Amino acid sequence: MRERFWELPLDVLARDEWEALCDGCGRCCLHKLEDEDTGEVAETNVACRLLDTQTAQCSNYRHRKAFVPDCLRLTLQLVKKVPWLPPSCAYRRRADGDPLPDWHPLLTGDDKAMRAAGVSVAGRVISEADAGPIEHHLVEWPK
Predict the structure, then answer these.
(1) Which helix (H) or strand (E) segment is 103 a member of?
(2) pLDDT at 83 (0 to 100)
(3) Helices and strands of the chain, counted as H and E runs
(4) What is the pLDDT of residues 72-89, one digit of tens each?
(5) Entry pTM
(6) What is the pLDDT of residue 39?
(7) Most exposed residue of 38, 65, 115, 130, measured as fewest CB within 10 angstroms of its CB?
(8) Nearest Cα to 121, choosing from 36, 33, 57?
(9) Do residues 71 and 48 make contact, with C-beta atoms less than 8 angstroms apart?
């Protein structure tokens, strides 16, 4: 990977650079509810069944689409289109021309600062296998 690749425009990143840009917070792997009339998106603390709720890492990232067909692979086009990526998301920030936040693992070398900043969902979510009605799990994550 190129030095400081995260400062480059998203459309010139190689596949490994694109993947490395993810901070691993896990918020994109949480179920969301969208109001059909307004388009407003409500966030939940219900994780995809493949998300390890203690680490916020996908347990089968490489083959996730085989097990969760509606799992989205983030692309530059999707980043610009989907309204539910959090403002802290590196893809969202870089698409908007903003730098990575100070706590980002690419800048700090690990995920400790991200967890301390309250960005990671690790240890704060429940698996869809255990959740019951999703409507009972609405939350407001920090912006």
Answers:
(1) none
(2) 85
(3) 7, 6
(4) 889 999 999 988 899 999
(5) 0.90
(6) 87
(7) 38
(8) 57
(9) yes
Assess contact for 119 and 142: CB atoms under 8 A.
Answer: yes
> What would the pLDDT profile of 97-108 be if each residue is shown by its tens digit?
999 999 999 999
Residue entry with tokens 């509606």: 70
Closest CA to 106 of 6, 12, 8, 14: 6
Measuring CA to CA, how many Å separate 14 from each of 20, 45, 49, 107, 116? 10, 32, 29, 19, 30
State the DSSP string of 16-70.
HHHHHH-----GGGEEEEE-TTT--EEEEEEEPTTEETTTTEETTGGGHHHH-TT
Integer Rg of the chain from CA: 15
Residue 86 Rama label (left phi>0; alpha psi -120 to 50; beta): beta
* Cβ(86)–Cβ(25) below 8 Å: yes
> What confidence tens digit (pLDDT) does each residue in 40-68 have?
999 999 999 999 999 999 999 999 989 99
Beta strand 138-139 pairing with 41-47: antiparallel
CA–CA gap between residue 90 and residue 106 (Å, rounded): 10
